[in-house]
C-alpha cells in the first residue's frame, strides 16, 4: 500500500488562489469527498507560492485527478497558465501532516 500514489503536486496555480478557491474548483470537477488534505504553502502577504499538495483517499482518485487537472486553467483568475500535476515526493496523509508540522514554515501554510 505504501507504494501507491495518493498525493499529487499541483503546479502553476495562480498566485492569488486561496485554499478555499482550490477546494471549490476540485469539488466542481467531482472531487468532493475524494481528498483528505490540501496543503497550499504560502509566505506572508501572498495567498500561495504557485503550487499545492493534495492527498486523495484512494490511488484511483489521485489518478483521475492527474488526468482531469493536468491542463486546467482557472478562468476565475487573471492567470492563463495551465496546471501541471505530478506525483508528490511525500506520499500519504500521515507522512504529509508529519512533514508539514516538522517544517520551519508551518505557520506559512494553509491546510485543509
List keywords for this structure.
single chain, 112 residues, alpha+beta, 5-stranded antiparallel sheet, 3 helices, 22% strand
Please write out the topology.
Blueprint: E1 7-11, H1 19-31, E2 35-41, E3 51-56, H2 59-69, E4 84-87, H3 93-102, E5 109-111
Antiparallel strand pairs: 1-3, 1-4, 2-3, 2-5
| Radius of gyration over C-alpha positions, nearest whole angstrom | 13 Å
What percentage of amino acids are in beta strands? 15-25%
* Number of helical stretches of at least 4 residues: 3
Number of strands: 5
Which stretches are poorly predicted, pLDDT < 50 over at least 5 residues?
none
Question: Which structural class should the secondary elements be placed in?
Answer: alpha+beta
Mean pLDDT: 84
* H/E element sequence: EHEEHEHE
Helix content: 25-40%
Instruction: Tell me about the largest β-sheet.
Output: 5 strands, antiparallel
Shape: globular
Amino-to-carboxy terminus distance = 23 Å
User: Which strand order do you get reading across the main beta sheet?
Assistant: 4-1-3-2-5
Short description:
By secondary structure, the chain is of the alpha+beta class. The chain contains three helices and five strands.
How would you portray this structure in words?
30% of the residues lie in helices and 22% in strands. It has 112 residues and is an alpha+beta fold. Strands 4-1-3-2-5 form a 5-stranded antiparallel beta sheet, sandwiched between helices. The protein is globular. It starts with 6 loop residues before the first strand and ends with a strand. The model has no long low-confidence stretch (mean pLDDT 84).
Amino acid at each position: 500500500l505504501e507504494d501507491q500514489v495518493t498525493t499529487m503536486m499541483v503546479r502553476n496555480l495562480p498566485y492569488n488562489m486561496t485554499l478555499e478557491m482550490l477546494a471549490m474548483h476540485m469539488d466542481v470537477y467531482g472531487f468532493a469527498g475524494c481528498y483528505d488534505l490540501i496543503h497550499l504553502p504560502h509566505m506572508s502577504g501572498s495567498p500561495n507560492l504557485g503550487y499545492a499538495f493534495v492527498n486523495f483517499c484512494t490511488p484511483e482518485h489521485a489518478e483521475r485527478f492527474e488526468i482531469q487537472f493536468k491542463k486546467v486553467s482557472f478562468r476565475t483568475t487573471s492567470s492563463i497558465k495551465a496546471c501541471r500535476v505530478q506525483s508528490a515526493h511525500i506520499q500519504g496523509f500521515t507522512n504529509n501532516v508529519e512533514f508539514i508540522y516538522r517544517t520551519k514554515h508551518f505557520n506559512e501554510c494553509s491546510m485543509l
